[in-house]
Structure formats: structure tokens, C-alpha cells
What does this fold into?
Amino acid sequence: MFELGRVEEASSDVRELRSGSPPWHVDQAPFPRTPILADTRCDVVVVGAGITGSFVAEALTRRGHSVVVVDKLMPGRGSTAASTAMLQWEIDTSLSELSDMYGFEKAAGLYRRSFTAMTDLTAFVDALGASCHFTPRSTLYLGSADTGLAGLSAEHALRERAGLPGALLDRGALADTFRMIRPAALLSPGSAEADPLCLSLNLLRTALLHGAVLVEDEVVAYDWTEGSAALTLASGPTIEAGHVVLATGYEMPDFLRSDNHRTVSSWCIATCPQSPGALWHDRVLIWEAATPYLYARTTDEGRIVLGGEDDDTQDAAEREAATPAKVARLLSKMRELWPAARYDVEYSWSAQFGETDDGLPLIGRVPGAPRMLAAYGYGGNGITYSFMASRILSALVEGEDRAWFGDYAIDRTTP
Ligand SMILES: Cc1cc2nc3c(=O)[nH]c(=O)nc-3n(C[C@H](O)[C@H](O)[C@H](O)COP(=O)(O)OP(=O)(O)OC[C@H]3O[C@@H](n4cnc5c(N)ncnc54)[C@H](O)[C@@H]3O)c2cc1C
It folds into this structure.
């Protein structure tokens, strides 16, 4: 079916990430890549070997489709390697805000679907047989000066009405259990943490074992008809397929424009490993009801990973120039919240990700481009939505549609 060249090996070193270095080290066999030497055809071409493309490739090959995955970089070296991988069912947009936008019933359905995606993702990783430091965690959503006890009480009441789990902690309960001083917090089970690069590469490796072909090349053009789609590689050949899946992270092709999408930059650090007593209760994933918000988790090595200070910086040089001030602010906020730790910074990095007005991803058919499917704009809980995208896009490839897919449609209108 494919005219293939010699399989080449690529190493798994993550340190080429442009703006700084995250703490994810992958000690794995090198990745086989296969040059495409002539025009070829397959069932589905996936563009992008980040965690989204890898989830999609795994799902499609497991269902028996022939799949080519194309990435211009080494797999996982886009935003995936930069992710702090707090795998949450809670959406960046609160249930209260989402209810204001779409009404309670729809908003509750969106939250429940995200909760189910996390439950399914947990079972999926368990079956994958590569733990990648995947650890179930609760989340602690901290109130702020703007969203205090009253705001979080209202959010909690809506979540209870939607059938979602969690407890409201007032200032006293939060201080007693977590030794953190804030007006209130929501403690919710059902989330997790993982090493995002390890997970992404293991998904891709599984897809390759199921017959996928990985090509290191840049896609420079796309074409489509009612019956098939095609793309052109920078090295010359074209690949024709039943469907093309775009999973190119924050780099969207020109023909795919959405007013509901923008890219933002986020800054992160990882501290030295802490002594066990210096980490907070139950190592919950921490985020907060503030803008920009701080997010923090721990790693198996006992590091504190924290991030935030998101803004709309687009230029890599500007992002790097801003890093010292961003890191200083992150440290100062975290020290105030959790003074018990040692804040020796061993890693700092920054990267871009896509987000949308309603905090929901863009997943589905590309408007005006038959046979082209895409997944973008996941915001803070990107990886939960990468998993959901793989389920939605696999179904669409197989001609199955569901009414709820429309909630994530690329051309949906937001209030
Ligand atoms: C700092 C930071 C912290 C984050 N924290 C979290 C978190 O805690 N929890 C969470 O769930 N999410 C988090 N996210 C978001 C999450 O990491 C992303 O949603 C997710 O990694 C996106 O994966 P992706 O595969 O879609 O994109 P990417 O990982 O960016 O992969 C896209 C790939 O497409 C390739 N590509 C692009 N254009 C082309 C082309 N023309 N030809 C060939 N290849 C191409 C790129 O080389 C790249 O490898 C965070 C993101 C950042 C940046």
C-alpha cells in the first residue's frame, strides 16, 4: 500500500523544546520513522504527533484503519511536552458561567460528559499498560478575592444539581485540612496527573504496533473533494486518504479559521524534590478562581510543578524575555499559598496553547472542507479533551454521528 523508505530511528530527548525545559524525561527506545517516497494512500492521515494525534491514531488503528501520522518535529514536542498534565474533568469555564451562556441543562451535560471522559481515560490508561506516572487525584479549586464563599457555594450547588461529586470547604475547613488560607474551596474527586510526554509517546507506540506509519515531514498543502482528502509533504509526495485529521496544536492551517479561538502563552516551573512533609495534604491538584489563575501539582519525585500567568504573548522571543518576571510572580503567589516548601527552581519553561470563548474545544468536521476533521483549542484541560476528540473523530471517520458532537463543533456560535 505504501512505498516506504528505510525506517529511521529518532531519539526521545525532550530538551529541544524551544522556550525552556520541563521535567518530563522519557527513557524509551527510539521511535521508528518512515520516509514516504512516492504518492500514497491510506484510510486516515493524522497531522500532528502530539497527544491528540496520538490518541486519534491509537483509536483508529485499534479499529483496524490504516493510518499515517505526519509530524514535522519529533513526536510530542509541541505543547504536549510543555503540559503540566493536570487531567481534570472540571472545565476552565465554571458551571455557573457555562449555565449563563447555554442554560443549566446543556451546561450540566457538558460537565457530566467531561467527568465521564476522565473516568474513561482512567480506565483506558489502566488498560494501556504504561502507567506514565498516571495517578488519580482530587482537585482543590481555591476561591479568590472575587470569588469567595458565596461564589463557590453557588458553583457547588449547581454541581450537586448536575449530579457531580465534590465538597465545599469554608475558610476554616480549608485551613484545617490543607493549611491554606483562602475564603473557600471546592474539593472534587475524579481527576488525575500523568507525565504527558510519556503518555503521548506510549499512545503513538501502541498505534505503530497496530500498523500506523510515522512520517517526519511538514505538511505544506491540503486538498479535498466530496470523496477523499489529500495533503502534500514538504519533501514532495502527496498522501490521499478517506479522511485527514488535523491535530496540529496551536498551529492551525489557514483554511481553518474560527472567531472562537485564540492562542495564549503560559509559564511553568518545577521545583527541586521536596521532603514528604513539605507537600500539601493528599497532593491534590490546585487551581483557582482568579484571572490569571495559578495551577499546581506534585510529581512522583516530589517536585512542585506550578504554572499560570497566562497572557496573549505570541512571539517566542517576547515570551522568553518575560520569563524571569513571570517566574518571580508564580513563586511569590505559591510561597504565599504554601510557605512550607523549598522553592529552588530546577526547571522553567513556557509555551502556547489554544483556548476558546466558552472553554470548550473545537472538535469535528472542518466547515467547507469535506473529509477534513480537526481537534483544537482545549484550554487548561486539553488532555481530557484530546481523549474525547479521539472518540468523536473515530466515530465520524466511521460515519457515526451523535447530536452532542455539535456542542464542540468548529463552527458553533458562542453567546
Ligand atoms: C504550559 C502549558 C501547560 C498546560 N497544562 C495543561 C494541563 O495541566 N492539563 C491539560 O489537560 N492540558 C494542559 N495544557 C494543554 C495541553 O498540553 C494541550 O492541549 C495538548 O498538549 C495539545 O496537544 P496536541 O497534540 O493537540 O498539540 P501539540 O502537542 O502542540 O502537537 C501538535 C503537533 O503538530 C505538529 N505540526 C503542526 N503543524 C504541522 C505541519 N504543518 N506539518 C506537520 N506537523 C505539524 C507539531 O510539530 C506538533 O508536534 C497545557 C499547555 C501548555 C502549553
